[in-house]
Amino acid sequence: MTERVDQRVREDRSPLDPAVLAGAEAFARSWATAVIGSSYVPMTRAEVAQHLQDLTELLVEALFASPFRTAPGYEIGSRLVDAHFTGTDTLGRTIQLLGEDLLADLGFPGDDKLQSRLAALQGALSAGYARALRERTLAEQEAIRAAVLDARDQAEAMLRASEARFRAMFTEAAIGIGIADIEGRILDVNQALQDMLGFSVEEMRLYNVRDLMHPEDAGSVWRLYDQLIAGECDHYRAEKRFHRADGEQVWTHLTLSLVRDDHGEPQYQVAMIEDVTDRHLLQNRLRYQALHDPLTGLPNRALFLERLGRVFNNRTKHVRAGLCYLDLDGFKVINDSLGHDTGDQLLVEVGRRLDHSVSGEGKLVARMGGDEFVILVEGSSGEQDIVDVADRVLTELEAPIRIAGHELSVSASIGIVERELSGTTSADLMRDADITLYWAKADGKARWALYDPERNAKEVARFTLSATMPRALERGEFYVEYQPLVRLEDSTVTGVEALVRWQHPEFGRLAPDRFIELAEETGLIVPLGRWVLRRACEEARRWLEEFGDSAPFVSVNLAVRQSRDPELVRDVKRILDECGLPPHHLQLELTESAIMGTADEPLEALRALCDMGVRIAIDDFGTGYSNLAYLKHLPVHELKIAGSFMEGLRAENEEDPVDSQIVATLVQLAHALSLGVTAEGVETPAQAARLLRLGCDTGQGWFFARPGPPENIDSLLRGDL
Questions:
Q1: Given a cut of 80, is residue 633 above it in pLDDT?
Q2: Helix, strand, coil: what percent of the chain each, to 5?
Q3: Lowest-pLDDT choice from 63-72, 432-441, 646-655
């Protein structure tokens, strides 16, 4: 708009004197300085200066025009308004500046004619400014009024549309919707809610929201409702049951919302109710399937552990509980021989009997898997409560079970744990019950076993030893002690037995009876036996170098698994060669039961060792079953009579004639087979004398020396002891 007016001014303008134009430019600059900042004008500073320069030139041309007209002043006032020079001080500064500076800047400060014309132009400018400002104000007011009317019309249309949409949604919604006042009086319900509950809208209006309470509603549902109508929360969601008009129950997902008035006060409550009965029934069915054994119908492991966890979570001081952990004896045989279908039917019948015999408040029977069941007894008063339960179970299982023409007898082993819950955990209870179950099986089956902390401590220690044994050999925790084998005729040390010991960092010094069996079970007996053999051969070589012909042979125990090791012969030969020990200075001892039951391949190994020159001895002879005819074919050099036969020969004044006769018979047998005889467990001089009389060649026992370090053997060989 400014450009269009400026172009018109320049087209109508008549030429002016250059000095006048220069004065006009000076005034325009002063005018711009005076009004910039008095109004918000959407122009840059340079654009404002140019606009006022154009208006000044128009004003000067009107001032000198002939004939004189005031219309340009009116136009200038209008153009100031059009350009947004509408600040409260803009017009006043402009009129004041025109009167004080314009003529002076043009070079005509005292010209009365120009002064009169200027006054007329000032008045016209003010009039044009005022008229233009009034017209703009009226136009803005009209625009506002029209906008208000449009907004009102739009709001009314939107309200009508919103009401229509709400009514359509309320009426046609698939979920139930109900509206009640803040007192709980039901005002309206839609068709879906009527169908869901079986009541008409008129019947529903007779109810208060609190009349719809269900006796099994969670307390939180109505606690949240009280908070909502008090305005403390705006909505909440909950699972809730309702009674239908026909007495049936319907499960719903309820969303209750608060509607406030313009002042924020609670006014209405709106309930949206979705029928989730089918989903709820499905969830219950799935949960039942997830928590019950599909075969027996009993609670499964998951439900049992959940129940056990609840018992521990709700425990109070001095509350007790007990477990019976049950496993069927011989079930695998039935399952494998008669088929899995018969096995399954057997489990079903066992589950039925257990459930029948163990029932009542605070008791739970569950199938843990396979043929294992568990019985939880809450609030027990002592071990006898759980023992009584176990006895009832064993009695219930005594009657044969008939399945598909088979009459099956089944028994069970039961582990029992009963204790106060404080100071323990559910995991501890389960672990101890499981441990005790295996005690019952180990003790002979068809019985129960009660948890014993001392026995468990021994089992834990045994497990600890088993777990730490491999590293113990690497860490050098094992060592060897030696006990002399003494010729009874002249008390000369002819040999020594190497006995391995374990200096355990936690349990202290351990004798072989604490760990040899574990070494057999874990297979460590082979590397351990190899290590003992090497240490014993090294000591035997040292004695040979130091004592020459008086040096004893060394006797090393050979475990059953070692005797069956295919590398045994090579290991013995390599160790003898590396130690530089003649083979006849080594004796290997095997128990009677081990050597008598030796198969062909291990027997060949013993013959190879015998051919090599290694001595073979049967340890603890007389305690096992001996095939005497077979004995004469074995590559054996020595029989060591078990120490149990020595007890009757220990007394100072008398001897047991039976033990004496047994020893005499064993000695005669050995000598008949050209075998040497060593008596073990010699503890008194009377024993030594009697054994010599009975023909024993050598003796071993505390009477001669206890097992000790190799230095003790050194002293014996030197005659220091």
A1: no
A2: 55, 20, 25
A3: 646-655
Query: In angstroms, rounded to a whole number, what is the distance separating the alpha carbons of residues 630 and 595?
Result: 11
C-beta pairs of 503-506 under 8 Å, 24+ apart in sequence: 503/477, 503/478, 503/479, 504/465, 504/468, 504/472, 504/477, 505/477, 506/464
Residues 546 and 596 in one domain: yes
Q: How many residues are there in the chain?
A: 721
Taking the C-alpha atoms of residue 421 and residue 434, their distance in angstroms, rounded to an integer, is 17
Radius of gyration of the chain (CA): 57
Q: What is the pLDDT of residue 368?
A: 92
Strand partners, 651: none
Residues 46 and 132 in one domain: yes
Q: How far is CA 363 from CA 163, 432, 631, in A?
A: 60, 19, 61
- How many CB atoms are closer than 10 A to CB 82? 14
Which of 243, 257, 188 shows the shortest CA–CA distance to 214? 243
Q: Does residue 675 sit within a domain?
A: yes
- Distances in Å between the Cα of 455 and the Cα atoms of 327, 432, 435, 439, 461 are 21, 11, 10, 10, 10
pTM, entire model: 0.52
What pLDDT does 596 receive? 64
Q: Take residue 465 and report the two structure tokens written for it.
A: 């030893």
Q: How far apart are the first and last CA of the chain?
A: 135
Alpha helices in 65-111 (DSSP H): 71-82, 90-97, 103-106
Classify the C-alpha dihedral 571-572-576-579 as positive or negative: positive
Residues 343 and 331: beta-carbon distance below 8 Å: yes
Q: What is the DSSP secondary-structure string of 220-249?
A: HHHHHHHHHHTTS-SEEEEEEEEE-TTS-E
Q: Is the pLDDT of residue 435 over 70?
A: yes
Whether the pLDDT of residue 153 is over 90: the answer is: no
Residue 470 sits in a domain whose CATH number is 3.20.20.450
* Per-residue confidence (pLDDT) for residue 543, from 0 to 100: 95
Amino acid residing at 7: Q
Number of H helices, E strands in the chain: 27, 21
Which residues neighbour 390 within 8 Å (Cβ) at sequence distance 6 or greater? Answer: 324, 414, 416, 448
Separation CA 534–CA 546 (nearest Å): 18
Q: Both 77 and 192 in a single domain?
A: no
Long-range contacts of range 65-70, CB-CB < 8 Å, 24 or more positions apart? 65/14, 68/117, 68/120, 70/120, 70/121, 70/123, 70/124
Determine the Cα–Cα distance for residues 616 and 635; give it in Å rounded to an integer: 7
Q: Are β-strands 176-181 and 698-700 bridged in parallel, bridged antiparallel, or unpaired?
A: unpaired
Residue 201 three-state SS: helix
Distance CA 126, CA 525 (A): 123
Give the Cα separation of 682 and 647 in Å (integer).
9
Beta strands in 549-600 (DSSP E): 553-557, 586-591
What proportion of the chain, given as a percentage, has pLDDT over 70?
94
- What pLDDT was estimated at residue 391? 93
Question: Which residue is listed with tokens 């004896």?
Answer: 329
Rounded to the nearest integer, the mean pLDDT of the chain is: 85
Residue with tokens 């501890």, as numbered in its chain? 428
- Whole-number Å distance between alpha carbons of 136 and 132: 6
How many domains does the chain divide into?
A: 4
* For the ranges 21-35, 214-228, 265-279, 363-377, the one whose mean pLDDT is highest: 363-377
Range of the domain at 252: 173-281
Higher-confidence position of 117 and 571: 571
Domain end among 226, 259, 281: 281
